[in-house]
From TrEMBL:
It is an enzyme of class 4 (lyase). InterPro entries: ACCD_DCysDesulf, D-Cys_desShydrase, TrpB-like_PALP, TrpB-like_PALP_sf. Keywords: Lyase, Mitochondrion, Pyridoxal phosphate, Transit peptide. Its main location: mitochondrion. This is D-cysteine desulfhydrase. It comes from Miscanthus lutarioriparius. GO terms for cellular component: mitochondrion. Its EC number is 4.4.1.15. SUPFAM superfamilies: Tryptophan synthase beta subunit-like PLP-dependent enzymes (SSF53686). Its cofactor is pyridoxal 5'-phosphate. Residues 62-335 form the Tryptophan synthase beta chain-like PALP domain. Gene3D superfamilies: 3.40.50.1100. GO terms for molecular function: D-cysteine desulfhydrase activity. The active site is at S93.
Amino acid sequence: MAGVTATGVVGVPSTFSSATAQIGGFLSKKPYAPPAWATHLSPMPSHTFSLGHRDDLSGMQLSGNKVRKLEFLMADAVAQGADCVITVGGIQSNHCRATAVAAKYLNLDCYLILRTSKLLVDKDPGLVGNLLVERLVGAHIDLVSKEEYGKIGSVALADLLKKRLLEEGRKPYVIPVGGSNSLGTWGYIEAIREIEQQIQQSANVQFDDIVVACGSGGTIAGLALGSRLSSLNTKVHAFSVCDDPEYFYDYAQGLIDGLNSGLDSHDIVSIENAKGLGYAMNTAEELKFVKDIAAATGIVLDPVYSGKAVYGLLKDMAGNPAKWKGRKVLFIHTGGLLGLYDKADQLSSLAGSWRRMDLEDSVPRKDGTGKMF
């Protein structure tokens, strides 16, 4: 089996890696063969780790779109002999939580630099949502204020921690915000291959447009690049939830330039602003929308990414009906369910009702016992 030796995958205990690799290939390290239409892109990844299922169906602790990127990034970390990984994000970052879990699966230490408010930076961050999972799996957490983050930047912060770890004799591997670099972009090039295969297997399914939330740029770069190069050639629409569209056009351009694609981001993706009050901040109307979608369909959107993207999409459909009339749209749910827990107080007035069951004293017991279970 590729990547497994007598001592196991590098960084993974042999008994664990061998056993899990036999269960659907989970955690197996595999040589990577790109889609035929992407073989001209470079640099080409050499290997990938099988870390999850897909997007919103990939489970709880290791879920969301970040898993696709981590399959390539973690393979590179292990190939470079890293014994720990560093990444950066917001206090409820889905990417940081997924990285912490993936690192633990691969027997790597994980260091997270998390951005929070100035009022909370010196306090225990608590155990809500993504933080609970990160701390349960033993991630090392360093807090910085939003002001410090804005002044220093994510790259410099990660480099500072990397320098300190190197001085301690560690071998750190830095993963950028959201896992969004040119290597991570391959995760969503691969996603387009899956969509292409699914369409080929279901002859009656076709899409005119793909819609997705945009928070760090890697997902839209991979989707847009893959869609243009593949047989799909489907228009990709992104709804940005933090920075402005022009920032993401430029950032995505850097990612696709890093793969020597020769394409212009403005030609392969359309980006709309859906950040509203700001990153991870919601209006009452947006939260009510998330609740209404869940109550109507059973589909739970997260308030930070997919919720804002669908909200923005439907507003655009209402404001520009001719643009969307008759078109079939594939919306990609990028996970992030744990982010809902951070909004529990704001959602409490919107959630389903409850009541104390009315029990009559005369109701006879049916089980014939007086035991409590």
